[in-house]
Design brief:
The chain has about 200 residues and is of the alpha+beta class. It has 7 helices and 4 strands. The protein has 2 domains: about 80 residues, Alpha-Beta Plaits (2-Layer Sandwich); about 100 residues. Helix content is about 65%, strand content about 10%. The longest helix has about 40 residues.
Amino acid sequence: MDDPLAMGEPQGLTWALLVPQVPAVPSSARVQLWRHLRAAGALSIQNGVWVLPFTPAHEQLLRDELASIVRQGGTGLLFRAEVADGDDAHGEDLVTRFRAERDQEYAEVCERCQALRAELVRETQAGKHTFAELEENEHDLAKLDRWLAQIQARDFFTASRASAARSALAACRADLAAFAAAVYQREGLMDTTNMKDS
């Protein structure tokens, strides 16, 4: 595999940089830009410059954001850049910062997963094996599943806590399956031996 982005290697990477000048009023334009770029996994570096590893999709995203800024009365510049020869430390620093941001998000997923598992324990101890509780917990798990997928989509350099977050979500799924089995058994829908194959 020759793609340095796919390999998670900082050397030889090309970066897409957006230098926006967003009008101060209304503030919604600045908030919208911040939200869109954060959702895409962009890193905010010095003086409001945003950076992403260069890919055609990232370039198009930044072009679309720049067009939106211009429509709202602002300006900006879009660059494709490489770290200067002999300055690999700065490229590695960017990659480290990308990984750190994703690791922080993965840690939050792990915390939310632990909270969901603790909630399932409390509900089990309280005998709350009801459809309403099951539905609520399934909804919470689905939100965690979507959130993890969003983080993984912007984890360009394979952050170290990705595996822990996937494991935490798998543990949630297993605990919820056990909780669901207890609900089904309470409702007389099936016995626990049948649940092993479902």
